[in-house]
Amino acid sequence: MRRSAREIGEQVSCDARYVGRVESGEIRCPNYAYERVFRHMFPGCSLTDMGFAPREAVRGRAARTRRAQTDERAPLQSTMRRNDSTHSPLPPFTIRSDSPGFTVFPNCPEYDEESDVLRRAFMTGGPAALTATSLGGTAPSAWADRPAPPAVPAHAHVGDAEAGAVEDAVRRIRLLDDRHGGARLYRRAIGSLQAAYGMLDAGSHRQSITDRLHAGAGELAISVGWLAHDSGRYSDARSHYGEALATARVAQDPALEAHAFCNTAFLARDAGRPREAVRAAQAGRQAAESLGSHHLLSLLALREAGGWSGLGDRAGCRQALARARRLFAKGTCENDPEWMTFFGEAELEGLEAQCWSALGMWDRAAEHAARAVQLQDPHFTRNRALFTAELAGDLAALGQAEEAAAAGSQALDFLGPVQSTRISAMLEAAAERLTAFRGEPAVAAFLDRRAATV
Question: Region labeled Disordered — which residues (predicted)?
Answer without folding.
Answer: 60-96
